[in-house]
Design a protein that fits this description.
alpha+beta, seven-stranded mixed beta sheet, 7 strands
Amino acid sequence: MRLWTPIQDLLDRISAYPPYVVVAELLLIWLVVYGILRFVQGTRAAGALKGMLVVLIIAAVVSRVLGVTEAFQRISYLYERFVALVAVALVVIFQPELRRALVRLGETPFFRSTPSDIAYTVNEIAEASAFLSRARFGGLIVIERSVGLTGLLEGGTVLNSELSARLLQTIFFPGSALHDLAVIVRGRRIHAAGVQLPLADPSDMPDPRFGSRHRAAVGLTKECDALVVVISEETGGMRIAERGRLSAPMDEDQLRDELRARLTRAQKAAAAAAKQAAASAPDPAVGSDGHGATGEVDGQDPNSMAEHHPDAEDESRIARDLPPDEPRSDKEVA
């Protein structure tokens, strides 16, 4: 009967609390466990986590049931040391997942681009991807968002060129020096080309027939919030990789709509958060120029002020100084 004493004590302690407190605690614990399992779902850490949970549950039950008797005091002692060892092992085993979780916590929405920038970027990438798909040319286009990709540029070639569909087609044309690796797009510019991306483990891929381009797309998006457009050289299929998951094959219109939706989703959330923060803030004092500190000018929405950002003015001034682009033929592009 002494084996059931800890269980009876636990039930007695639970019955001493109000029912709504017990339900709230169980719900909170369930949400935390569900969030962890959802985060590691589809990764190599999922199997290790399940196995560790089973071991911990068995060890806890054995320690609580047998550890209260005088004959099994050492089991309780070993369990306490085992839990301390598991805490250290968790950090080592789940280091990639913990790093990815911290990166996601520090991510900020894609708020630096205006809707016109997003539309321009999406149209140029979709047009270039459709050309590569029809010609069966492989392509790997990375759209940088809030997490910088500067650490990947060691082996790449920095271009800092204006984004255009023709330039992307030229880069990925077979035989060019940069066509085998990835291109990084930052805003309206092609920041770098010939960039080597980290490869995902073959066990992380939904289909073992996927090649190195798809593995690179999945591997990068597991580590950051970038969007990756990957074009298959064998089938011409166009897919989007995000958060370590590949989409189904798309045509040009589907790719354009999906890119626009994914890039504007975070921007809308940022705009809503900014409006909510402005509404909850106290009324600012009016400055000497007659305008409030919120940045409103004659009733203009603060979000629209992004069009008058100094960086945008510098770009427009540089664009005015440059000569107009001359039309190029398809032969020149090739």
